């Protein structure tokens, strides 16, 4: 019989055990070993059965056991110590509080998904895990962050396999009362809500749930409330589900409703109002519109409000391909804004102009969320050095007239939260070397001096650790594989072979990620005979553990999963290669430490960062990857191997896969397996262990989320907060009026004449040329512009590379035709083909970048030819 209604009955904890409730509700337990150990000791069997979730654990422990623990003095002492430790963690000054200067009072961080722990399944892949790691690292560093997301009642789907290996999706219903969440309440005890206006007089209401991630509050909006109609109740049903309007409503709720939730939280708790708003990918871009509307209500005009909002906004793009960006039909967006819908005080045409692809190569009828994110943020970044360059090229159309290198998108390379991803055994080995506190600091904050101590750990200890982790992975794989085959319909009598799957003494390769086509899940199957030879080699075998989910709507991705599963089902190799369904955080935390090699073979440059290899590296796993994302930036032969790429323009996809697969096989056969199985005089794989040691000591400090968040604070949050404070209402009006005046006058700006003191096309290194330029400024004055000389080496097409920019100074006043003369020196500081040009840019003290306006005037083609601007 099925229940007609479901309730969550909470346990009544004895008074001495009340701190357990606070510990369970703060998700710091997910990365704090002592807290997890305490909960495990409450009832080891219930702990395992609850999926290692303290909230579920406390709901299942028998009252008799709780009464027994309340009388146990040793347990109460442990409980007091862990509770005191959390209190100190929450209140003591940390890295952020020790920084000089006036940092942001608070930062609001918006993301469509957050991967904090498997006990709060609100993530699908790398974007969510990155957002979760960002919150956790901010907490460890003391950064006053407020996270904002949506609470999906079905989360992302759970994955299983049919008998023939086809991916099947399941959507379990999540009850917020059974999750580590608490409802945000008004002062009268009623649940706090936000509301959005919809067309036709409808309304979308959402409750605010609070997850406490260490020191960081995470606000999650939930539309499944009784006040909503059926359609509105389902807005937050699934992560990345539904059609265009469903996604648009999710993103309006995240952005607009999210700002309102932050205001509500600050009002109710006294938390500092954010000075900086960080948009993690374009899904939350509407937050800028809500903040503009707030300022318009306070008396600012739209243009001034836009400048004020841009000053304090940071936008991070994670996608290297246009197909990865949410785009909506113009009319759909128009219907949800303006009179009779949301933000009626803002002209809908102004809303649309922020997101329309009104640039060469764009689709003029599409509203692009990333484009809006960039137009609403004064600071933007990609998530690796390579991805920053890809992003500048991808969005260069927003800054016409500028080379892609000058597009104002920087990069902050992602990192991973080491306390979450480092196996307890790895941590204990480090703590034994340098002490628990220094080891915790090394993982949370970084500092190479703490990581250098890895050099002092004996080879034998490292090798024993690696085998222990491999052994644990083997046990985990067999358990998960047995469960998977039962789901596929196999009986116990069919599964005896699973007892011999994998070997703790065999070189183990891991490959786990989402399954879009560009990540090439099945590249390893390109030459199956060669792969079989590797798996079954008599002296140097390898074994491979694979996991990954295809998006429910991606039939091609599901076919890739099925193709791989069918290969792993082959009785000849199934003891050496396995596919584990339902990849998630709980599986990942066992998988990364247990592998010797982490494989990544995307199509370059389509991997924005690829943080899974970072998590593996923190556990002493070596990377084998295409030079893409973070690996392109930090690869050294000390840390692993680079798979050569065949990414020339003329290489067709099939040939490219063949070339790169052969390179992968060659590396495994000729370099990797011999090194793993080679033994030195000590009987250990000395050269392999040296690579493990260097990975930990040299790569470890770089891949930390602590390093990443420190960079965000220093390079983006602090400047954004400073710009936010400088953009008071008068300054915002001044900048908006100046931009409007400059845009109107810009057609009258031109470079009329360029003259140098050089009489020949050759010159010696170190020589100085006198440069004299005549420009027309139309209705502008020299205070409105900067005239620059741009010089550097030139390529065969006469493009200036690695350009140096020098401002020129006006000489005297305008002539009778209104032209101004600018002069300055040009130093020939490089040998070889050298070139220069000049340009005029708008200039204002409140601009974050000289290219921010997207306006530039350069010499005409005729003038370039007449001036002879190249020197060879």
TrEMBL record:
Domain of life the protein comes from: Bacteria
Cofactor field: pyridoxal 5'-phosphate
Domain DUF3417: 13-120
Catalytic activity of the protein: [(1->4)-alpha-D-glucosyl](n) + phosphate = [(1->4)-alpha-D-glucosyl](n-1) + alpha-D-glucose 1-phosphate
PROSITE patterns the UniProt entry points to: PHOSPHORYLASE
Record-listed E.C. numbers: 2.4.1.1
InterPro entries: Agluc_phsphrylas, Glyco_trans_35, Glycogen/Maltodextrin_Phosph, Glycogen_phosphorylase_DUF3417, Pyridoxal_P_attach_site
Keyword tags: Allosteric enzyme, Carbohydrate metabolism, Glycosyltransferase, Pyridoxal phosphate, Transferase
Principal EC category: transferase
Family membership noted in the UniProt record: Belongs to the glycogen phosphorylase family.
Record function comment: Phosphorylase is an important allosteric enzyme in carbohydrate metabolism. Enzymes from different sources differ in their regulatory mechanisms and in their natural substrates. However, all known phosphorylases share catalytic and structural properties.
PANTHER family named among the record's database cross-references: GLYCOGEN PHOSPHORYLASE
Protein name: glycogen phosphorylase
Taxon lineage: Bacteria, Bacillati, Actinomycetota, Actinomycetes, Kitasatosporales
């Amino acid at each position: 019989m099925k229940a007609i209604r479901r309730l969550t009955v909470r346990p009544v904890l004895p008074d001495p055990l009340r701190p357990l409730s606070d510990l369970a509700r703060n998700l710091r337990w997910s990365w704090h070993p002592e807290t997890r150990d305490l909960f495990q000791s409450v009832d080891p069997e219930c702990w395992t059965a609850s999926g290692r979730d303290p909230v579920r654990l406390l709901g299942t422990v028998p009252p008799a056991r709780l009464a027994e623990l309340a009388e146990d003095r040793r347990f109460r002492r442990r409980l007091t110590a862990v509770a005191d430790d959390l209190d100190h963690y929450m209140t003591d000054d940390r890295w952020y509080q020790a920084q000089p200067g006036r940092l942001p009072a608070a930062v609001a961080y918006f993301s469509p998904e957050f991967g904090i722990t498997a006990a709060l399944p609100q993530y699908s892949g790398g974007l969510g895990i990155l957002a979760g790691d960002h919150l956790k690292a901010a907490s460890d560093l003391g950064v006053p962050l407020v996270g904002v997301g949506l609470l999906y009642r079905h989360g992302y789907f759970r994955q299983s396999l049919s008998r023939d290996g086809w991916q099947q999706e399941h959507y379990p219903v999540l009850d917020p009362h059974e999750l580590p969440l608490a409802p945000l309440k008004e002062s009268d005890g009623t649940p706090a809500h936000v509301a959005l206006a919809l067309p036709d007089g409808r309304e979308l209401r959402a409750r605010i749930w609070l997850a406490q991630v260490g020191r960081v509050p995470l606000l999650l909006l939930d539309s499944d409330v009784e006040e909503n109609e059926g359609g509105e109740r389902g807005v937050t049903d699934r992560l990345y589900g539904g059609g265009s309007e469903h996604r648009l409503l999710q993103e309006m709720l995240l952005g607009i409703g999210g700002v309102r939730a932050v205001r509500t939280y600050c009002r109710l708790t006294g938390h500092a109002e954010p000075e900086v708003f960080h948009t993690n990918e374009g899904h939350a871009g509407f937050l800028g519109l809500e903040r503009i509307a707030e300022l318009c209500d306070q008396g600012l005009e739209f243009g001034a409000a836009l400048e004020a909002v841009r000053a304090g906004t940071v936008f991070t793009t994670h996608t290297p391909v246009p197909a990865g960006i949410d785009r909506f039909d113009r009319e759909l967006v128009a219907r949800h804004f303006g009179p009779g819908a949301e933000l009626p005080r803002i002209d809908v045409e102004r809303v649309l102009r922020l997101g329309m692809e009104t640039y060469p190569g764009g689709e003029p009828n599409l509203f692009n969320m990333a484009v809006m994110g960039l137009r609403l943020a004064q600071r933007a970044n990609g998530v690796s050095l390579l991805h920053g360059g890809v992003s500048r090229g991808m969005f260069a159309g927003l800054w016409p007239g500028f080379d892609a290198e000058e597009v104002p998108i920087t990069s902050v390379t992602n990192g991973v939260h080491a306390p979450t991803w480092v196996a307890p055994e790895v941590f204990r080995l480090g703590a034994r070397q340098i002490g628990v506190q220094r080891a915790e600091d090394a993982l949370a904050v970084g500092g190479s001096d703490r990581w250098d101590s890895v050099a002092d750990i004996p080879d034998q200890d490292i090798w024993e650790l690696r085998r222990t982790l491999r052994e644990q992975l083997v046990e985990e794989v067999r358990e998960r594989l047995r469960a998977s085959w039962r789901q596929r319909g196999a009986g116990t009598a069919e599964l005896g072979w699973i007892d011999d799957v994998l070997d703790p003494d065999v070189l183990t390769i891991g490959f786990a990620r989402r399954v879009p086509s560009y990540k090439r899940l099945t590249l390893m199957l390109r030459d199956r005979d060669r792969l079989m030879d590797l798996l079954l080699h008599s002296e140097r075998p390898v074994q491979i553990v694979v996991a990954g989910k295809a998006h429910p709507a991606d039939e091609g991705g599901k076919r890739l999963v099925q193709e791989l599963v069918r290969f792993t089902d082959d009785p000849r190799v199934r003891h050496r290669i396995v596919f584990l369904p339902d990849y998630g955080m709980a599986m990942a935390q066992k998988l990364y430490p247990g592998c010797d090699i982490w494989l990544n073979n995307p199509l370059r440059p389509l991997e924005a960062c690829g943080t899974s290899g970072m998590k593996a590296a923190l556990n002493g796993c070596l990377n084998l990857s295409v030079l893409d994302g973070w690996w392109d930036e930090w690869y050294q032969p000390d840390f692993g191997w680079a798979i050569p790429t065949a990414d020339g323009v003329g290489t067709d996809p099939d040939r490219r896969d063949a070339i790169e697969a052969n390179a992968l096989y060659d590396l495994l056969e000729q370099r990797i397996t011999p090194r793993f199985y080679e033994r030195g005089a000590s009987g250990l794989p000395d050269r392999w262990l040296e690579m493990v040691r260097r990975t930990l000591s040299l790569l470890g400090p770089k891949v930390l989320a602590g390093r990443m968040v420190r960079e965000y604070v220093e390079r983006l949050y602090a400047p954004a907060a400073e710009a936010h404070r400088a953009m008071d209402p008068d300054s915002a009006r001044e900048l908006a009026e100046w931009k409007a005046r400059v845009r109107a006058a810009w057609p009258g700006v031109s470079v009329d004449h360029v003259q140098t003191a050089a009489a020949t096309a050759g010159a010696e290194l170190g020589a100085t040329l006198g440069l004299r330029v005549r420009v027309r400024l139309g209705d502008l004055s020299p205070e409105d512009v900067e005239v620059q000389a741009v010089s550097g080496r030139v390529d065969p097409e006469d493009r200036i590379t690695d350009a140096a920019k020098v401002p020129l100074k006006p000489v005297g006043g305008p002539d009778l035709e209104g032209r101004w003369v600018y002069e300055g020196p040009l130093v020939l500081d490089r040998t070889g083909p050298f070139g220069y040009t000049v340009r005029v840019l708008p200039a204002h003290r409140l601009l974050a970048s000289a290219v921010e306006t997207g306006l530039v005037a350069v010499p005409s083609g005729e003038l370039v030819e007449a001036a002879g601007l190249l020197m060879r």
